[in-house]
Amino acid sequence: MQDRSADSGRTASALGVALLAVVLLVAATACGSRVPAATSVTAAGTTPTNGTGATADTSGGSGTTAAGSGTTVPAANMVGTLKSPCSATKGSGTLPAGTPGVTADKITVGIISDKANAQIPVPTIGIQEGLQAFVNYCNSLGGINGRQIVLKAYDAAIFKTDDVTKQACNDNLFALVGDGAVQDQLGIATRDKCGLPEVAAYSATTARSQSKDFFQPVPGTQAGKFNVGPCKYIKSLFPDAVAHAAVVYTNVDASSSRALATAAACETVGFKFPAKLGVSFGATDFQAIVGQMKSEGIKYVTVVSVVPDTLALLREMKAQNFTPEVIDLGQQYYADAMAAEPAANGAFVLTNTAPFFEAASNPALQVYETWRKKINGPETSLGVQAFSAGLLFAQAAESLGNNLTRASLLAALRKIHSFDAGGMQMVTNPGRNVHNSCFLYLKIVNRTFVRQYPKKGFSCDPADVISIPKGA
Description:
By secondary structure, the protein is an alpha/beta fold. The protein folds into two domains: about 180 residues, Rossmann fold (3-Layer(aba) Sandwich), CATH 3.40.50.2300; about 220 residues, 3-Layer(aba) Sandwich (Rossmann fold). The protein has 13 helices and 22 strands. It has a seven-stranded mixed β-sheet with strand order 14-13-15-16-17-19-20. Strand 19 and strand 20 form a beta hairpin. Helix 3 packs parallel to helix 4. The longest helix has 18 residues.
């Protein structure tokens, strides 16, 4: 279910990639859906599912159907079911003096992320592009209360999160928005000291997700908590296989801790993991690992790594004619390269956001796709989460009119208890940082991602969020 990678001159790079993969896993096991109280549009009624909770309808059903096309067209000034928080309408009242990053006609925000590069296969690409797409969309409507958004981007380069956070603090920003870095445990104290609010695309570490003045559209990665909804679903399909499970992960702290937490959580609902297999930095030879799983009769395999390494593992499994009943993967594996690999056929893949192949019936996702394509950005689930973070930030800021201060922004964010970006993602409670309780499984079938479960929306059950030992 996760991600990682390698190089010394290579060792540092490998560590960065491994941590990166973990970031995605964190997001991958999340779930939820919503619509803000301000717009009072809730997800369509839930229907029971077979023992895994309720199916939250986040299809973003606000819009019109083009005659004869079968495609739902977004309504003007709507993002699915969410009334757009962006417009040229000026707010009432007087702007408080001295608000950082805010003038009569501009709001300056920043984004920190690990940018794609030639050395390290970064699985978090698309985050900066996702937020840029939101900024362009919002500014096209007039900005937030008539103020255009100015975006400053910072490359954390995996190892420089604190350095660029210091730079952001010195750049007179109003807030950080849509960001996400593999080593986001770095820079927390710096951000706190300079008072920068953060509405991130995701959190890679528990330290970031539980830090002061931090919000994200899909809360997760919390110490001692885990959503076991996916574990329960897989067990319902493969009750025998989950008693013969293996988790393969990069043997660094970030990856191993997430992998072992996954095993510990799934074990509470009946999984048994006779094989917990750490892999060294940059490993490409999986012959011994596959041989061990084969000899131990493993029937279920999940992976905490990056796409290239996992593809190498799957190919070795095929070469040794090792065919477990289940291959279970996290959100970072919602990638074209994974679907195109014959050895990945039949793998289950989690996602926090609405599947791209459902965009024709999801007006909220169409808004993201329209503006992503305008800048030729990559199509990624985390890019959607960055766009969603922009909407979350804008919703809070728009509600304040001209009473725009960092303190008032934080207060407005804390009031948002139901959010799904108009149907773009699962329903969550970002204002109270409530761990997500939903999931959606895709499956790779003949080199294509198809919806596996539930049939519509996301399967959500708060009881699926359980407590596990913090050291697990």
